[in-house]
Structures are given as C-alpha cells and as structure tokens.
Amino acid sequence: MTAVNRHENQGNDFLVNMGQQCPDGFWYENLSDSKQSWISDAFWRSIGCPAPSSFPGSIIDTWLSMISPNQTVEIKSLLEACCQNPEQAFNEVIHFLSPEGVSVWMKCQLLVLSSSRGEPSELLCWHSNVTDMMTVQSLQETSNRIANIGYWQVDLRSMLSEFSDITQELLGLTRNQQVPISDVLDVTPDQTSSRQIKKSLMT
C-alpha cells in the first residue's frame, strides 16, 4: 500500500476506486502510520457537514466523534473486539449526528486486515445511508406504541426473535432479550396459529 493522504482528491487510485464504489462514505485507517489513513468526501456529504481541514487524532477518533453519544461506547467496544478478533463480524446500523444535530443513520461494514504477525494493521469501513428506512421504522414503532400494538420479527438464520417494547411487556421479557421463536410460540394461546407459524418458518 503506497502512502495516501486523508482526503479523497489526494488518495491513491485503489482507495479512490473503493470510495467511488461506496457513494455514502468509505474510510481507511492504517494503524501503524496515521498519515496513510484516508476518508472519502462522500462520508462528509452524507453526514451533512464539510470535511475537516485537519485531523487532530486518528480517522477513527474523528469518525467516533460523529456518532450519537448514546451509541459511542457500544461502537467503540465493537471496534476493539474486532481488532482483537478480525474474524468477528462488524455490520452495524449507526446513528450519526451532524454539527447541527441532524440525525443520519448509516449501515457500516468493517473489515480488519492483519499483519504477517497476526496483529491488526489496517481497517476499512463502508457506509450505506439507511436514514429513510430508519425514519419509517421509527414512525411505525411510534404508531404501534400509540395504538398499543405489539409485533415481533425473526432472524431466519439464527431463528432468534426480536420483539417490540409492547410485545416484551406482554410476554414478560427483559428489554432487547432474544429468544428462540419456538419458545415464544409454545406459550401462544392459539395453538393452531402457533403450529401454522412454525410450519411456515421451517419451509
């Protein structure tokens, strides 16, 4: 990897091409030489603010500073975990705040590259703007809460279920608790519906 500067118009061809393939933002961090780190201008356009003229810390520090305070600790912890174990997946929806306080939601995918000694050496992060989707989801959750409607969804790979706040309350679950959907359906009063749902999930 040849030396690259921190702005898109000064980067090398490889990183510029990577940035062009990710129109909502992309950054690269060299953990051993911060002068080689790079962030695309598209990221700043997505967040809604001009690119800084300088970076007092690392690209990661600057990036973390744009995340909502409610999520900063969690994301920082996930970053550290990925650096300790590069095989760990990082595919998170992150809440960013512009300097004016405008919310921007981005789906961020991180790749950790290791050195020949097995130590983390480089980080690459792709961004996809999902603000519209998150806005619709928030409106739906607000409407359901007002109407006192509960709902749940299932990850078909893990078969774990996620529940709205109202559903958690109705089922006596702790906040953000994930449970196998089969366990939930076993306590469903309407056993006919329960069997039908189980059958559809298994097909």
Describe the structure concisely.
InterPro entries: PAS-like_dom_sf. This protein is of the alpha+beta class.
Explain this structure to me?
The protein is α+β, with helices and mostly antiparallel strands and 203 residues long. It folds into 2 domains: 125 residues, 2-Layer Sandwich (Beta-Lactamase), CATH 3.30.450.20; 62 residues, Beta-Lactamase, CATH 3.30.450. The strands form 2 sheets. Strands 2-1-5-4-3 form a 5-stranded antiparallel beta sheet, sandwiched between helices. Strands 6-7-8 form a 3-stranded antiparallel beta sheet. The N terminus is likely disordered. InterPro entries: PAS-like_dom_sf.
Looking at this protein, list some descriptive labels:
8 helices, three-stranded antiparallel sheet, Beta-Lactamase, 2 domains, 23% strand, 203 residues, alpha+beta, 8 strands
Low-confidence parts lasting 5 or more residues at pLDDT below 50? 1-11
How would a crystallographer describe the biggest sheet? Answer: 5 strands, antiparallel
Question: What is the overall pLDDT average?
Answer: 77
Strands, total number: 8
Please estimate the helix content: 25-40%
> Percent of residues in beta strands?
15-25%
